[in-house]
């Protein structure tokens, strides 16, 4: 078990208490030797005890600790030693310590009030000393003494306030980083839900529609049509729900592409096979020897195929032909998903039974993944249909 900073500071604090106590005893003995009255020595000793106790209390209760220290300093301010002011007793160093702790914990307006109390105490001390100043001691010495005390108290207060504001800025920055991480994670969840669930729902709807086209029973066709419509409604509801998880896009984060489910190039063939139906001819071909890819590039390739096939099945009226190709080159992998435009190109007048949906977040998410992997993504419309193409670098070509 490692020691905490508080535990590490205890030996230093105990040592400081011991050293200052010894020095205070020696200073009181010296003042007694130079003619200080017994009550003065006892009063100063009591004030020193208050200061040491205040330092201990202020660790957990800054206000009572500071008030106790101020009381001890007030006692010292009323004592006039023959040689020097009692406020300069070594144990008086605990007073700025209690001010430091108070400033670092309470609101700024309260710490200003504590600073005003300290300044007032210094002024009172110097006025009492001026009234009792022996004729042989010049008055400027009290001005210098008061100035030094003001400098110490003001410096301690300013340093404590600066450190506090720096800690608060660090906490705000950390909160900002946490908020950005949460937003980034929400966007990642949003993309994954879209990629996985939306693709599955689209394939289900496409197969139901294919079955409705091939069946000869009107009642069955109507029933299958209702089921397909319900599936499309569910897909739109899913998109509306995902919109509540965050904005459509977020800046790609370092290490983007790490997914919660194992995704690989070998899974593309199964993905394509699961999307095929009697009215959806989805084929897969791989050209050239495979080369090593980074994990982010492999995930981007899978998501590109998934999004391309999903969009073709969702937006094009069957029958539809979709070809998926992976073409390997020395420096990169080209992922291409091409469709033939569906039956819309073969219906007189170019009319369609189902209009394409609006541009969703799927392609935006795929674009982020491809860019994070160091590649490029393009979507083009040809004479026959749409082409989704991603160029991803291999490890050898990166």
UniProtKB/TrEMBL annotation:
Keywords on record: ATP-binding, Kinase, Membrane, Nucleotide-binding, Phosphoprotein, Transferase, Transmembrane, Transmembrane helix, Two-component regulatory system
Location of the Histidine kinase/HSP90-like ATPase domain: 299-389
Keyword ATP-binding belongs to the record: yes
EC number from the UniProt entry: 2.7.13.3
Reactions that this protein is recorded to catalyse: ATP + protein L-histidine = ADP + protein N-phospho-L-histidine
Parts forming coiled coils: none
Domain Signal transduction histidine kinase subgroup 3 dimerisation and phosphoacceptor as annotated: residue spans: 185-248
Domain of life: Bacteria
Membrane spanning residue stretches: 12-30, 36-56, 110-130, 142-163
Class in the EC hierarchy, top level: transferase
Protein name according to UniProt: histidine kinase
Organism of origin: Micromonospora humida
């Amino acid at each position: 078990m490692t020691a905490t900073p508080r535990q590490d500071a205890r030996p230093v604090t105990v040592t400081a208490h011991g050293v200052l106590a010894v020095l205070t005893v020696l200073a009181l003995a010296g003042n007694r030797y130079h003619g200080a009255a017994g009550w003065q020595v006892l009063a100063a000793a009591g004030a020193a005890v208050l200061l040491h106790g205040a330092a201990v209390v202020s660790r957990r209760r800054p206000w009572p600790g500071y008030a106790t220290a101020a009381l001890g300093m007030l006692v010292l301010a009323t004592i006039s030693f023959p040689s020097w002011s009692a406020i300069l007793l070594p144990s008086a160093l605990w007073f700025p310590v209690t001010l430091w702790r108070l400033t670092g914990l309470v609101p700024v307006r309260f710490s200003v009030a504590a600073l005003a109390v300290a300044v007032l105490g210094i002024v009172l001390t110097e006025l009492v000393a001026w009234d009792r100043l022996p004729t042989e001691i010049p008055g400027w010495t009290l001005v210098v003494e008061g100035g030094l005390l003001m400098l110490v108290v003001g410096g301690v207060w300013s340093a404590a306030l600066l450190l506090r504001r720096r800690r608060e800025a660090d906490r705000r920055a950390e909160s900002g980083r946490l908020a950005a991480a949460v937003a980034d994670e929400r966007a990642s969840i949003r993309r994954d839900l879209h990629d996985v669930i939306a693709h599955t729902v689209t394939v289900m709807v496409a197969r139901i529609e294919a079955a409705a086209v091939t069946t000869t029973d009107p009642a069955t066709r109507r029933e299958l049509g209702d089921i397909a419509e319900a599936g499309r409604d569910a897909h739109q509801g899913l998109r509306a729900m995902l919109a509540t998880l965050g904005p459509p896009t977020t800046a790609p984060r370092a290490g983007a592409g790490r997914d919660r489910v194992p995704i690989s190039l070998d899974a593309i063939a199964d993905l394509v096979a699961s999307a095929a139906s009697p009215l959806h001819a989805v084929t897969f071909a791989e050209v050239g020897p495979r080369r090593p890819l980074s994990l982010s590039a492999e995930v981007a390739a899978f998501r590109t195929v998934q999004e391309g096939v999903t969009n073709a099945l969702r937006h094009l009226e069957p029958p539809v032909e979709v070809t998926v190709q992976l073409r390997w080159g020395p420096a990169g992998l080209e992922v291409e998903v091409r469709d033939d435009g569906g039956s819309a190109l073969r219906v007189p007048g170019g009319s369609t039974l189902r209009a394409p949906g609006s541009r969703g977040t799927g392609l935006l998410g795929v674009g982020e993944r491809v860019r994070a992997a160091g590649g490029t993504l393009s979507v083009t419309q040809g004479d026959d249909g749409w082409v989704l193409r991603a160029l991803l670098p291999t490890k050898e070509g990166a």
